Amino acid sequence: MSQVPHHCSMMSGSHAHVTLCEPLAQLKREHGPLREQMDAFAQLAAQIGMDQAKTDWSRQLAELKEKVDAFVRELDPHSEREEGALFPLMANYIGRQVGPIAVMEYEHELAKRNLKTFKEAMEHVKEPVDAERAKEIASYALQAHAVLTDHFTKEENVLFPMAENMLSAEEKDKLSRALRS
């Protein structure tokens, strides 16, 4: 029987029943509105380019850009709180080069890269935008949605419960103060 590396077993979701302290519960609660915004832009993005008879998708892309921009304005402070407060506290115990923190930071970066690529593509849009180009541009928003949907689930079911069990009362107080500032 092969052994699962310790850092892999920590990502298995075995901690999901843990009651979270207030700062961790806050981070988890922030996922709800973010998920709603993300699902709304993904629904629109999935429809873009579907009607091949339509010759200009620039209006729908502009609407998608508004939704993505609004989402990013909410996502950035949330991810900064995780990266600047939670991840360093956890890294004291499990490091950040490999394992859960490395995965979370990689997924943050991957999602941000897709959102940035979407934004940059929108800056270079020349009207009219045909279905093929519109689908290509919208695909970056869909990729970010896919990464973040999975990412939020990992945080809620594995990372936050792991932090609850790992961090001391003093560290939880420090996290609470950091989230308020």
UniProtKB/TrEMBL annotation:
<dbReference type="GO" id="GO:0005886">
    <property type="term" value="C:plasma membrane"/>
</dbReference>
<dbReference type="Pfam" id="PF01814">
    <property type="entry name" value="Hemerythrin"/>
</dbReference>
<feature type="domain" description="Hemerythrin-like">
    <location>
        <begin position="23"/>
        <end position="163"/>
    </location>
</feature>
<dbReference type="InterPro" id="IPR012312">
    <property type="entry name" value="Hemerythrin-like"/>
</dbReference>
<protein>
    <submittedName>
        <fullName>Hemerythrin domain-containing protein</fullName>
    </submittedName>
</protein>
